[in-house]
Amino acid sequence: MDTHQFTIHLHSVHGLIRGENIELGRNADTGGQVKYLIEFAKALGNRPDVKRVNIFTRLIDDKTLSSDYAQPIEHVAENVRIIRIQCGGRKYIRKELLWPHLDEFVDKTLKFVKDHDLIPDVVHGHYADAGYIARELSAFWGVPCIFTGHSLGRVKKLDLEESGMGTEEMQKKFRIGRRIAVEEEILSNTDLVIASTTQEIREQYGLYQSGSIARFCVIPPGIDITRFYPFYDNWLQEEVELHEREQAKQAQFYVRKELDRFLMYPEKPLILALSRPDRRKNISGLISAYGQDKELQAIANLAVFAGIRKDISDMDTNEQEVLTELLLLMDKFDLYGKLAIPKRHDVEYEVPELYRLIAQKQGVFVNPAFKENFGLTLIEAAATGLPVVATNTGGPHDIVENCQNGLLVDVNNPQEMTQAIKTILVDQEFWKTCSQNGIAGVREHYTWEAHTQKYLEQLRQLTGQTHPTRTDFTPPKAIGKKFTHVQKFFFSDIDDTLIGDDEALVRLMNVLNTHHEQVGFGMVTGRPLPSVQDVLVEYNISMPDMIISSVGTEIYYGADLLPDKGWASHISVGWEPEKIKTILNAIPFLHLQEQEAQREFKISYFMEPGEEQITKIHQVLTEQRLRYTLIYSREMFLDILPYRASKGKAIRYLSYKWNIALGNIVVAGDSENDEDMLRGEMLGIIVGNHHEELDKLQGLRHIYFASAHYAAGILEGFEHHRFPFSEAWAST
Asked: How far apart are the first and last CA of the chain?
């Protein structure tokens, strides 16, 4: 019997997530995915084979939003938490504008997990942005990555093109090109993609080149049938706590009161639509169809719950346009007294009561969306016994086929939509059949118990828990797992520090290999990465945990040379390489080095020594208000880097990212381009064969000047600093 308990990390970046009183429909970031995520996490937390579920999202401290979103940690259930990571400032930013800040989110998540020893068994990203984050974390920790798209960039792009939006506007507003590219990469590299329906795989993921190679599994979302119980059943009211019974009674009262204030004849059956105010949801199409059909108006009232609003003028442009259009249609068709458009609804208590109230009135639920990826509201309605009319595209097809609880229509045909609504409202036997089928169908196909059971079966396969001798997932050498437990780092320059004495180098490598579980080893150099790889082969040096190359502008991890994208994102700020090259190429005493020496964040020249030359370079660059770092070494090499980059800054970044105290880091060097990493709080070793420019550091207590040269000098420095440990290790 499998006794393994899983730790699962779920990621959804936008930040408008909380455990209670979900603001469903507040804006484009608060669709059904938020509700799904919370209920999914709770359902997983109830499983005996799940140890902990952590939902990672963005921390938002914004006066226009609830302070709930500023809590660093929110306990949702006994073993379910929301962990909020600050990135991109503290104000709310819609998810399409968060792309530049995702690497910061990755770095801070790694730090949080190291601080709390929380390496998961799996990371699961929801939407493309969180899918990117999950894939990066998966690579660091060597754990499986799962992705749920919810909506996809290529589908959105087609919809925007149909609406007349141009490519430039799409890029500006939705970063659509970046999103699609990331989705292609996710599908190529993730271990499992969860879809809600087979149609989603075929028609939506099928638009992607990588869709043919991704591994898919269809797991329809579930719902809590203890909340969405049938309209005729009061069994729950006898079993729940008194305060919850009171909450439900109050919710029913206020829902009825809110509807009645709009309606002239509230006793009529009700047609219900419930969604966020998005043009793709086609609420205006439903109102127009209703407004054009006098017979339908005589039969039933219409209630539209289109998100949460206080003042339409304060909302995003898309929501403003949709809601304004709904109010104008009410006026156009003179639907006062027949159409209710309430301003708010409570998701936890009022929505279930709303469905039951409509069912008690023998009404119908309508989902008129042009395209619906799944349609969670259809399942909620079905569970309460409320028949449905829905779009014939996407997920609703699978739901109605499984539950036999309503009719599918072409929502572009108003007459077809209104006829289907009238058929259900007028034919009482058909209404009863759809109602009963929906209740039974949800209990068979769409419970959280069934959803989490299938999810964990997939997770056991990915992690080898089902077949301990075989697994579909082969983890890479997980540098993140090692760094979660490491408390010390050692960094060494290569030329004339690490190499130069072959026998001493062997002894040094023996020490580092002996303590490799406790000490992270990094090489830091001006060489580009291919040149570093040549050194490793030529001198038979063990693969380091980290390589800081090209004078601190690039960071790579482990044998797979996993690039640190967070560092690249950090140093790219204010970097204008083409402008710098244009200016410096006009200076006669500078000569560009060979192409191999040029990197994305490093421009390299040959230059004869001289203070006047360096002064001239500073002058011409600062006159143009350029930000940069200038490194001159060995009296011939000049490197221009981003102002945030250098060897020392790269090491300090790694100290922060992996939460290694600067006092637990030892650095070794020999020349002036090592100076910035030797200054500060880190323990320094300057080998005996060092350049005289470093003699100015004499007297700094944290720096040891060795007598021995090259690797022998490093070993001498280890002994002085009692590193890695205080016991006598030199005999190793």
From this structure: 44
